[in-house]
Amino acid sequence: MRLRTLIDNINYVELVNMDNMSDEIMGISYNSKKTAPNDLFICLTGEHVDGHEYAEEAFDNGAIAFVVERRLNLDAPQIVVENTSEIIAQISDFFFGSPSQKLNVIGVTGTNGKTTVTHLIQKLYEANGQQCALIGTLGHKFFSGDTYHDAKHTTPQAPELQRLLEDINEKCIKNVVMEVSSHALAQHRVDFCDFNGAVFTNLTQDHLDFHITMNNYFKAKAILFENLVAGDFAVINKDDEYSERFINAVSPTVSLYTYGIKNDADIKAKDVVFNHSGASFTCIVKDREYKVNLKMNGMFSVYNVLAALTTALALGMDIEKSIKTLEEIGGVAGRFEVIVNKPAVIVDYAHTPDGLENVLKAARDITPSDGRLICLFGCGGDRD
Length: 384
Known about the structure:
The protein has 2 domains: 3-95, Udp-n-acetylmuramoylalanyl-d-glutamate--2,6- Diaminopimelate Ligase, Chain: A, domain 1 (3-Layer(aba) Sandwich); 99-327, Mur-like, catalytic domain (UDP-N-acetylmuramoyl-L-alanine:D-glutamate ligase, 3-Layer(aba) Sandwich), CATH 3.40.1190. 30% of the residues lie in helices and 22% in strands. The chain has 12 helices and 17 strands. The chain has helices spanning 3-7, 55-60, 84-95, 114-127, 158-170, 182-186, 208-211, 214-226, 243-249, 299-314, 319-327, 353-365, and strands spanning 14-16, 27-29, 39-42, 65-68, 78-80, 104-109, 132-136, 139-141, 175-179, 197-200, 233-237, 255-260, 267-275, 278-285, 288-293, 337-341, 344-347. Strand 14 (278-285) and strand 15 form a beta hairpin. It is elongated, with a radius of gyration of 23 Å. The mean pLDDT is 91.
């Protein structure tokens, strides 16, 4: 893509050293060490690092133009913008041809449950004969049987995300389900990403080292729902204390679906029972009742399944067939994963107060009355 073409399609404040705008941009970079010849280097100003300080190294590595917030002492084309962290998403979207507009993209957000819910939705798509790619904490997969391709973040930075979405499109996969973290929303990584649906799991204490307050945390998550438009859908956990605020964030033109156990919802579970083989409950969908027997355990698993099932409802999938699909799934690696049965050894990703409490409750439910429950957990520190 020629530099002139890119400039004509983004917002900027000033152009510097633009003697030759016919240069061909071959890639987008924000890491000077990974910059390749003919890259456009974007000087991001982050929490701890200022990309402007690494512009010279990027120039030495072959960058031919720069996106900056202040002028650089470099003899190279410079596009001055108000905020590089915001513009990087617009540039990435345009450079890769707005791939999300060619795809059906569902975003899943919440403190806990994102990974499991995205995996369940991917399985539901495939059970209905449709390919679906997945992007999340464990990496990305082009289909459920694929190996994970590593990811640095739950939600990739904009250039990697848009490149990946274009790769998915080129593979003729038309559906994508992705975890959308609060960091990604607050840091504009998913700006210009066209979501067709959004799923909310829950909101409890996490990432307050970054967001400072729960209200800021909520506001970041709510961005995903505020950007939905007519024809899109939203799936909300009606039992969460923030549910009404998320519902209010959704435009009246967006199709709204809810799920829960305690409160009335479009899809509701009752008579929930746990045993060593999993959870069972009665699922109520539009006044019809279905018996559900899961291979997954814990109340959180019931909520995750309800979130996926409500998404299936929003997508027009057959509910009975979707339930049968979910009943066959044994869970996700590292999510209440039983490693050894005698004695039972369980591995879980829980790293928040709510997450750890839920896992311990689930483990207690399957611990013999005369047995012991032993918890071994780590604490990395320097977080909330």
